[in-house]
Amino acid sequence: MTADRLDQRLPTARADHVPRGILFMLGATVMFAVSMAIAKWQVASYSFAEVLFYRAVGSFAVCAVLILPRNGLTVFRTRRLRDHLGRSGTQAVAQSLIIIAFSLMPLGGAVAINFSAPLFATLFAARWLKEKVGLARACALIAGFLGVLLVAAPGADSFRVGALFALGNAVLFGSVTAAVRGMTQTESAETLTMYQMVFLMAFFAVAMPIFGMTWPSGLDLTAMLVNGLLNGLGQYWWTRSLSFAPPAAVGPFYYFSLVWAIGLGFLFWGDIPTLPLIAGSAIMVSSGLFLLWHESSRKLVPVE
Predict the structure, then answer these.
(1) 266: number of CA atoms within 13 Å, CB side?
(2) Reduced to 3 states, what is the DSSP secondary structure of residue 245?
(3) What is the torsional sign of CA 137, 161, 263, 92?
(4) What is the spatial distance between Cα 209 and Cα 16, in angstroms, rounded to a whole number?
(5) Whole-number mean pLDDT of the chain?
(6) Would you say the pTM of this structure is higher than 0.85?
(7) Cystine design at 119: which of 134, 144, 263, 276 (Cβ 3.0–4.6 Å)?
(8) Residues with Cβ < 8 Å from 159, sequence gap 6 or more?
(9) How far is CA 212 from CA 46, 58, 171, 290, in A?
(10) pLDDT tens digit sequence for 214-232
(11) Can you tell me the distance from the alpha carbon of 163 to that of 111, in angstroms, rounded to the nearest whole number?
């Protein structure tokens, strides 16, 4: 479920629920960061398609356990199968790009560039959903892109190539976000989630023979499935956080994913954060937080 719809459903969220929502959001960021670290570890030995296939299997298992008992197979009822297919195909490419980026650059840098996705989502929403950008949004977009340039520019050639893959992921993920915002007019969050998981498994199953497939060892297979379980649990906790508190209260804590990613990169790969990474990340996070605040404040204006 998107932040927009949750805002509409929960305009009077109880104040004592906000700390619980923050805890769920922080828990989700830990799950996402560990999941990304496992993916970076595994893609050094296996193809990105294989890593993502097993992650999709694990995520599907979590989502099926959480969704199907309450909704049954009616969750798959839709008149927009082609839209689900297109959205999931774009997301499959986006996920492939970020996993490749993990193999070419520090984890923290790739995650930092990934945080530019909301900026691209704003642009796609303006193009496809006819949403007005306005001066405030435009300034935030420009500042955010400057932050991307800071993070992507420094370092060796491999870092720059990895940054291009990470940026490609951010662009595609931004388009997916805009597409989901449009689809929520007719599709439930459960339907969107289940179709996403089913199609992602199918896409990566087809991609494995093309990009490489090696039967993993017991430890690696476990790690890749755990990766999916953590990712699915993170998605669930993220949704739960928004059910307890409005996005304006819990959204800023999502950026802790970057903190954990930088910490894990230093702990396991010895990646030392550079000044451009810190500065660029700060600019992108600030731009994202401003957009979040701006959208939330607009929702508080009475509509005649």
Answers:
(1) 9
(2) coil
(3) positive
(4) 51
(5) 83
(6) no
(7) 144
(8) 104, 105, 106, 109
(9) 7, 20, 26, 42
(10) 999 999 999 999 999 999 8
(11) 10
DSSP 138: H
**Which residues have C-beta within 8 Å of that of residue 295, sequence separation ≥ 6?**
none
Least reliable range by pLDDT among 30-34, 51-55, 110-114, 116-120: 116-120
> Smallest Cα–Cα separation from 107: which of 35, 172, 27?
35
Amino acid of residue 94: A
What is the residue-wise DSSP string for 14-68?
Answer: -GGGHHHHHHHHHHHHHHHHHHHHHHHHHTTTS-HHHHHHHHHHHHHHHHHHHHH
Q: Estimate the crossing angle of helix 117-128 against helix 275-299, to 10 degrees.
A: 40
Three-state secondary structure call for residue 167: helix
CA dist 262 to 37, 39, 79, 212, 297, Å? Answer: 10, 15, 42, 29, 31
Q: How far from chain centre, in Å, is Cα 120?
A: 13
What is d(CA 170, CA 164) in angstroms, rounded to the nearest whole number?
10
Alpha helices in 184-217 (DSSP H): 189-211
* 103-151 tens-digit pLDDT: 998 999 899 888 887 777 777 777 766 667 677 778 877 888 888 878 8
pLDDT (mean) for 235-263: 82
Which residues, other chains included, contact 229 with Cβ-Cβ below 8 Å and sequence gap of 6+? Answer: 58, 59, 61, 62
Please give the distance of CA 273 from its chain centroid, rounded to a whole number: 22
Q: Given the structure tokens 């009822």, which residue do they identify? A: 77
Structure tokens at 218: 């017991």
